[in-house]
Design brief:
Blueprint: E1 3-10, E2 18-21, E3 24-27, H1 39-49, H2 52-63, H3 65-76, H4 86-98, E4 105-106, E5 112-116, E6 125-131, E7 145-147, E8 150-152, H5 160-175, E9 183-189, H6 199-207, E10 213-217, E11 224-229, E12 231-240, E13 244-245, H7 255-266, E14 277-286, E15 292-293, E16 296-305, H8 308-332, E17 339-348, E18 351-352, H9 358-371, E19 375-381, H10 385-390, E20 395-398, E21 403-405, E22 413-415, H11 421-434
Parallel strand pairs: 6-9, 6-10, 10-20, 11-19
Antiparallel strand pairs: 1-19, 2-3, 4-5, 5-9, 7-8, 8-22, 11-18, 12-16, 12-17, 13-15, 14-16, 21-22
Helix pairs in contact: 2-5, 3-5, 5-11, 7-8, 9-11
The chain binds zinc ion (ZN).
Length: about 450
């Protein structure tokens, strides 16, 4: 995941429904409501945090901290290169089965799925997920090293932490028979990173039209919540012409000249700053020698926006300019030999979940209860939640717990500081959304079924 922007939301009241003291949650007086938290969310929290089974489950998640860290390291050491997540997926499936989901399975795209039924006949249905893939190619040394309390390994945080947090959550709710109203679908997704282009969640939402909400555990810190999806489209453009000697065959169109014309047009495009919409020609390659008319040149272009509509507008204009550049290069030399091949190499949809939405409010409330921090940062990012948000399905991406850095690099590090906050936060957010059977109603609305 990558951070785009951050908007700091300060919850007004510091009073919390529960205070974490030592090993136990002590229930405090009724919380002063934060101005933007819906009363039904507060009522649900009061009820859930007053339930002894949930207090016990939260405590067990804390006690499971070391085991979860061992699990995180084990997952990290199973390579999961882009499009080659199978071995890690099989391990994850086995763990889900061992933790009680006998019917867990791997779908046609490679996602690992376990359905945990509630009492409400699948209404609502919430996905809680983490991604299986890493950015690291085959052959990368993924062995875990430790130095002075810092754990080093490619992928140790992104997203081995999310997967470990998910397993810890599953283990503790199953051990305590926590009964929800809505169904929960636990998913290990494939294809989240880079050119995976969210193929895992694309398949998930194609195959399951009845998903009402989506949570991705990706990233670490739990006071930062992603409720905006930055969309991106990326293209490779390959200009091809006859090529020839720069002196003897002068008069033929050049692939580099055509690409230069295209770039000169692209750089003058105007895009809105709100919703933020951007473009760049990221790489160029081409030509064979200084004294040859280039027969081939290629460039990679990245376009991003917080709005799908703006992204598509920009894309239409930019692609048109590229085609115009080819027409002009041919016209300049009275030729028809210059061509361009336009290949879509990246496609992530944009979206946004409003601050009033129950999923955002439930998450904010859970974070304040768990951390006793009244500040939650809401940010834009590119994660599995992009797809749900683009479909209008309420979604957030939350942290798995702990601290870390050097994402997507071989020097990625992780420190298990209050790591159990991750699965605790996921538990509370999940329960408010699905409802706790006999205790609270689901805060997540059931979408219209097609
Ligand atoms: Zn990630």
């Amino acid at each position: 995941m990558t951070i785009r922007s951050a908007q700091v939301i300060a919850a007004a009241a510091l009073a919390l429904t529960a205070v974490l003291l030592g090993a136990g949650f002590i229930i405090g007086p009724a919380a002063a409501q934060t101005p933007s938290t819906a009363p039904e969310i507060d009522v649900a929290y009061q009820a859930i945090l007053g339930n002894p089974k949930i207090i016990k489950t939260l405590e067990e998640i804390k006690l499971d901290d070391d085991t979860a860290l061992t699990e995180q390291k084990r997952i990290t050491e199973i390579p999961a290169p882009p499009s080659k997540e199978k071995v890690r997926a099989e391990y994850f499936l086995m763990r889900m089965q061992e933790l009680g989901f006998k019917d867990a399975s791997i779908d046609s795209e490679g996602n690992v799925i376990a359905l945990r039924k509630g009492s409400g006949g699948g209404r609502p249905k919430l996905v809680v997920s983490a991604h299986l893939d890493t950015v690291f190619p085959e052959g990368t040394d993924v062995s875990v090293k430790e130095k002075d309390g810092v754990i080093l390994a490619p992928g140790i945080g992104d997203d081995a932490r999310g997967l470990a947090a998910l397993l810890s959550l599953i283990k503790c709710i199953n051990a305590n028979d926590v009964a929800t109203v809505g169904d929960v679908m636990f998913v290990g997704t494939v294809g989240e990173e880079e050119l995976g282009n969210l193929r895992g969640v694309k398949a998930l939402f194609r195959d399951h039209a009845d998903i009402d909400g989506f949570i991705s555990i990706d990233g670490l810190g739990i006071t930062r919540v992603v409720n905006q999806a930055t969309g991106s489209h990326r293209y490779e453009m390959i200009f091809k012409g006859p090529g020839g000697h720069s002196f003897q065959e002068f008069g033929l169109p050049s692939a580099i000249h055509a690409m230069g014309r295209a770039i000169a047009k692209i750089v003058d495009l105007q895009t809105p700053s709100d919703p933020k919409t951007t473009f760049t020609v990221g790489t160029v390659r081409g030509g064979t020698s200084v004294n040859a008319i280039a027969s081939e040149a290629r460039m990679a272009v990245d376009m991003r926006s917080d709005s799908t509509e703006e992204l598509l507008k920009l894309e239409a204009r930019l692609l048109d300019l590229v085609k115009q550049a080819v027409v002009e290069e041919n016209a300049r030399w009275k030729s028809d030999k210059m061509t361009v091949e336009i290949k879509l190499i990246g496609d992530r949809p944009a979206g946004f979940v409003s601050m009033d939405s129950p999923i955002v409010q439930a998450t904010r409330r859970a974070v304040t209860v768990i951390t006793r921090t009244p500040r939650v940062t809401f940010a834009g990012s590119s994660t599995d939640s992009n797809l749900a948000m683009s479909l209008g399905i309420p979604a957030v991406t939350i942290g798995g717990g702990g601290e870390g850095g050097n994402w997507h690099s071989r020097n990625e590090w992780y420190k298990p500081v209050d790591a159990y906050y991750g699965p605790q936060n996921a538990l509370l957010t999940m329960l408010v959304l699905t409802g706790l059977d006999g205790v609270s109603k689901p805060a997540l609305a059931v979408r219209q079924r097609k």
